[in-house]
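Support request, please re-run this one:
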Amino acid sequence: MRRAVNGRRAPLTIGVEEELALGDATDRHLVGRAGDVIGGLSRAAQPFVEHEFKTSMIETVSPVCETLEEIDGQLRSLRERVRISAAEQGCCVLATGTHPISRWEDQEATPDAGYEEVGEAYQRLADEQLLFGCHVHVGVEDPDLRIAALDRIRPWLSTLLALTANSPFWDGEDTGYASYRYTLFSRWPTFATPDRLDDWAGYEALVQGLVDSGAIDSPQRIYWTVRPSDRFPTLEFRIADACTRVSEAVMLAGLARALVETAVDEAEAGTPAPDVRSEVLSMAEWQAARYGLRDDLLDPIGGGSGSARDAVDRLLAHVAPALERSGDARRVGEAVAQVLAAGNGADRQRSALAHHGSIDGVLRTLEVQPEPGPVAGLGEPAVADTGAS
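Re-run finished. Output below.
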């Protein structure tokens, strides 16, 4: 939501959810110990860590934050608390879009009625749902403005994916994709970028029609690349892989908020939403998932294609006023520059394989490491969306 501060509109609130993998402390293969790890957390930390679809997964849920500095501190604190509890259980925590080597056939679903319903409905897709994302919530109180923002951020999602792609390996092999998570998730019928919806009534009519038809059992089954939360007044960005580095999750949060800020400004000024077909957006996102930052990417708005660096430059130029207004320009700019220089997570995973000569070397680079300094305090968790996500 947005409130006035000294006569100026305050930046929109943000929250981040991180889906993390639990591995054996010795070989880093996935282990189904989520219940033990969550149970080992302090009472203060438990509300911020949730079960996920598989017992080898957990999800951390940040409090609602107003600054990227807050987000950074909360993510580091949550990772450290989970890491300590996991270590006490003989486990480690890994941050990646897919586990490079563990097989989906060896994982157990979390015993939960909602997850069981999803498993029954989606069968093999649910069985293979061994994917880890980084989700950013941006608060927009007015429902119509929420949809107006969604309509305007659609063409920029592929660039976010290219920057955060972090899942090149699956079942012990290089898939050829920078984000194989995106490719696997795209098989789900509601994981897509929607067409323009225009207003909240249009969104509600679409979702209610799917529910009434029996195609989905609740709005939670809308797994769009960005969606209105069905529980909170937020837009939830779901396109990104889980980030190995906290700095990249914070970068994603800053860019997501700046995109929504820019879209809200455009909507309030009467600037029309870009008229871009969903087929074009799907192609742009596939290219980002396939190549990441290593090849040309489609420009959904201008047409044609250009280098990934050009796509990133266009994104930064588009959101520059919002980044300046929130005080995030330097932090986000430096994080983006670091990704462009060193590669995204997928590039670094492949570099680790080349350097170490084995997937084991890749796994070591994905392990969440101890955070120096005191563990930050936690506020109230208020952005979590339960369900198979």
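The mean pLDDT is 92. The first helix runs from residue 34 to 39.
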